[in-house]
Amino acid sequence: MSVLPLILSMVGCYLAIGAVFALAFVTVGVQRIDRAAAGSPWSFRLLILPGAAALWPVLLVRWVRGLPPPAPADPRLARIERTRSVLMGSGAYWAFVLLVWFVLVALSRPPWGASP
Amino acid sequence: MSASYTWVHWNRHKKVYDGALVGAVALYIATFVVVGKVAFPPPGNLSDEVLIVRGLGTAAFVLLHMVLCIGPLARLDRRFAALLYNRRHMGVTVFCLGLAHAAVSIGYYGGFGVRNPLLAMLSGYGSLVPGEWPFEWFGLMGLVILFLMAATSHDFWLANLSAASWKRLHLLVYFAYAALVMHVTLGFLRDQSTIVPTLLVGAGIALVASLHIAASVMERRIATSQAASREPHPQWIDACAVDDIPESRARVVCLKGSERIAIFRNGGSISAVTNVCAHQGGPLGEGKIVDGCITCPWHGYQYRAEDGCSPPPFTEKIHTYQVRVQGSRVMLNPEALAPGTRVEPARVGEE
Q1: With contact defined as beta carbons under 8 Å apart, do A52 and A59 qualify?
Q2: Would residue B85 count as lying in a domain?
Q3: Do residue B108 and residue B167 come from a single domain?
Q4: Strand order of the sheet with strand B293-295?
Q5: Mind telling me how many Å the CA of B57 is from chain A's nearest CA?
Q6: What is the domain-level CATH number for residue B148?
Q7: Is B264 a domain residue?
Q8: pLDDT digits (tens, 9 = 90+) for B31-78
Q9: Confidence class for position B297, pLDDT limits 50, 70, 90
Q10: Scanning every residue of chain B, which has its alpha carbon at the shortest distance from the alpha carbon of A8?
Q11: Does residue B4 lie within any of the structural domains?
Q12: Residues 44-63 of A with CB under 8 A from B
């Protein structure tokens, strides 16, 4: 288990950098990458703070390169939504999910009525 | 819509929705704790902390089922669209409940700071032995996904991550659901001596599954009935009868290998636009015309039927299509025009 503290430390470092970045981002960076954010209230900036701390590499690249927001009409959106609809509407998929779940229940617990 | 950002665009509907949501959650947790104390009197009673942990956890799990069911329900019955409108607040509530559940349980089982609580939790509180199921890991996995979804639920993220990336990120809700089902199954259900909680979880999965399948069957029925008589790429196609389109609503047509197209009727005018909302990919053809604009049933995004542009000051645009009326039939050119291209609506009764 010695690798676990190391992983947790790395995650902690990532989030610590993210927290510092996020403060700078919501203060001065957000209006540089998205003009709609200029003059936005502090409540909006507070709301995007956790996301900025978690996704700081994405925002840092946008900020440094001065990239504008992506085009609002995204042709990939229709394909993604259709894929979701087909997969989640598949009876075979859900039958598989239920089967896996039944097996897990059967393997993970003592018979009902017996003390756990 | 993206004219400028504020933290929440409050309106009466959202206030009522959020008030009812918070009230219902508080009532559920209070009832859970009180019933738990009455049902399990000493000496075999559950501590207050355990009851609160379980109350928060079950509230989050039930609410997650509701979040997953609202989408297909709204497609099957338009009356549920009112619940869909503010679904993201319900999703954020699921995360908050999950976070509170994790915080209280990690604190309680980790001795409230005697050990590094996260490390204690992830190493199974010192009892990680072969055959033990690490259900906490699945809970953490689900919580991390719910956090990313809650943290990026504002439209700022939709605009700045790109609609496709945002959509992919938020489709992880299905992975979060799978992880939390594993968390509940390998943790809570394992300790239950009766079959009732297991049956309830099984019924929850079956409900989510059956609603998704039913919504998909309904969608496919529309698509196959429209696609059957089509040639691959004709210039103009016979889309439907004028009378097939309800007033202020749309008829959705699906072409082989192409996106769905929503043909709207507004008084004596017929217009066609893509069926995909630029916001989150919502089905525009299941919406209606409000104040002269096509209105998405998911979050109320609006577009003018004649050019696919959101009314000022908003800037969203969608694809438009050429249509004409021949007798009682609506003819459609399946070639998508650039988003925001103006097309003169076809007039019913004029050729």
Answers
A1: yes
A2: yes
A3: yes
A4: B288-290, B293-295, B302-304
A5: 19
A6: 1.20.120
A7: yes
A8: 999 999 898 877 777 888 899 999 999 999 999 999 999 989 988 888
A9: confident
A10: B119
A11: no
A12: 44, 46-48, 50-51, 54-55, 58-59, 62
Yes or no, beta carbons of B217 and A116 under 8 Å apart: no
Instruction: Specify the amino acid at residue B228.
Output: A
How far A57 CA lies from chain B's nearest CA (Å)?
A: 12
Q: Are residues B178 and B257 in the same domain?
A: no
d(CA B195, CA B197) in angstroms, rounded, equals 6
Number of domains in chain B: 2
Whether B182 and B259 share a structural domain: no
Interface predicted TM-score (ipTM) of this complex, two decimals: 0.90
**Claim to verify: residue B330 and residue B291 sit in the same structural domain:** yes
**CA separation, residue B350 to residues B96, B245, B268, B279 (Å):** 57, 17, 10, 34
Domain that holds residue B335: 237-347
Among A11, A32, A58, A85, the strongest candidate for a mutation testing the B interface, having the largest count of B CBs within 10 A, is A85
Establish if B339 belongs to a structural domain. yes
Residue in A36, A54, A112 nearest the CB of B194:
A112
Query: Are residues B5 and A44, on separate chains, in Cβ contact within 8 Å?
Result: yes
Q: Rounded distance, CA B23 to CA B16, Å?
A: 10
